[in-house]
Amino acid sequence: MPMPGGGIPLRIGQPSEFACVRGFLRDAGFDEAAVCRALTIAQIDGLSTIAWDAVNLDAVPTPLRWCIDVFLRGAAVEPTRSRDACGDATLAALMVLGLLRPAARNPAYLVCPIWLYPVDGFIVASDRRDDPDGGRHIAAGDVVFPGINTGTLKFLRLLPDCRAGDALDLCGGCGIGALHLSRTARNAVTTDVTQRSAHFADFSARLNDADVTSLCGDMYAPVQDRRFDVITAHPPFVPATGRTFVFRDGGDTGEDIIRRTIEGLPAHLRPGGTAMILCSGRDTAEATFEDRAREWLGPAAPEFDVIFGLDKVVTIDEVVAAARARPKPIDAQEAKALRGRLLASETRQFVYGALLLRRCTETIATLPLRVRMSERATAADFPRLLAWRRQCRQSSFPQWITRSHPRFAPELELTVRHVVKNGQLVPAEFVFRIEGGFPAALRPDAWIVPVLAGLDGRRSVEDAYDAAHANGRLPEGYALDDFAGLVGLMIERGFLDVELPADA
Questions:
Q1: For the chain, how many helices (H) and strands (E)?
Q2: Maximum C-alpha span of the chain
Q3: Residue 153: enclosing H or E segment and its boundaries?
Q4: CATH topology for 157-313+351-392?
């Protein structure tokens, strides 16, 4: 079978050949947990920094040891050892699919020309980070980025449930996003601007026997006028300077691909659908990233509820320093030009995190929300916030919240700081803290804490307010609406739980 054009090493073989290799990898135990145990790494992204000379695989079963040596370490192996590990039929299938070939410098040995690894319950192919024949490695501009770095693992944790709908993963790269979506989607599609990535994604889908369609083209062009229930992207977001890579660089300020992803949502995301983009955007002198993102939706902006889960803040100086610390760094003149370009575009800071956009079935005026997002955040953390914001938009909300029966979240912690006053320890500061996916802290005035303590799930907000008022615990002029507003904020940030109507 001829090799695809452009030096792509992988071949699309017959279903029986993919099934043969898939069965061997399964029987060999080539999965994420087994590999991490064998290599004593906490999770699969540890492959990027492993010191192979210190690895001892003597206790690892022969088939798995062979897989680790060939597919992960990238070692050249003798055909006899390969035949002993996987058998004649599997060896032949590996050769036909391009997963093994003779080494250029010593054809008596076999090498794997790509990187093949387990992640998220799948086996995924991407480009190697070294030359398989031991020569000088020069990464191509369309290199297929591995799906096991820390950012990609975060992306996978944040991918929404497709609920048997149609899903699209833009800037799909090696295809791991679409593979994950295929678990809950009726149809999963991945697109990428490079033929190389589209080919690798197609190969991985076939290897995993997953129902994923891989298309090549610019952004939404390959899907034309199709609409989806879920659209996701982990796009390039690094400001382009020096030598550029398709998988990394996102234009002058890093936002070109992000903006085009968002601008295409009104035409391609169905009402009730969800988009999730893991990226880095800019807070400018005039607006936050999430406010700017909502503007990119154009006339359809009032149809979208927007939440930004903030993972970290990066300064302009840190962005420039990162570009100077690359394996092929930019020089001082390029660094100065990059800094000047970012300042000229009124960049205040970069913010990295998950941008979630829900297309509503009604017109809304709710402003975007920013919440702090931790490493523990998953896709399951967002629906509660979306449901709460939908409830807040109901015309009956002011009456509903006063009649609601909130209670403290099980994970809530209250810390009290005491100071010495007139020889006595007295409470000086109260801090509510909640961990989880969206960690938050709140420092209320001391007098409100015992009032909030009345919210035990049995009393309504109005009952707790009336009891505090009757006991003289409230300052003059503090109204029920004020208390309900505080309760609403605490529900939004996760300090309080409340049962929402079924249609929220």
A1: 17, 17
A2: 90
A3: helix 150-158
A4: Rossmann fold (3.40.50)
CATH class of the 401-497 domain in this structure: alpha beta
Query: If DSSP codes are grouped into helix, strand and coil, which group holds residue 354?
Result: strand
In the chain, domain spans? 15-127, 157-313+351-392, 401-497
For the chain, give the mean pLDDT. 93
Confidence of residue 322 (pLDDT cuts 50, 70, 90): confident
Place of tokens 């903006």: 259
Q: Are 180 and 159 in contact (CB under 8 A)?
A: yes
Token pair 């739980």 in the structure block, residue: 497
Q: Residue 405 carries which side chain, given as an amino acid letter? A: H
Which residue type is seen at 126? S
What is the sign of the dihedral through the CA atoms of 221, 226, 231 and 232?
negative
Same fold, 157-313+351-392 and 401-497: no
Q: The tokens of 159 are what?
A: 């991918």
List strand residue ranges (DSSP E) for 260-346, in order.
Answer: 269-284, 304-314
What pTM was estimated for this model as a whole? 0.93
- Give the model confidence (pLDDT) of 110-157 as tens digits: 999 999 999 999 999 999 988 888 887 776 678 898 999 999 999 999
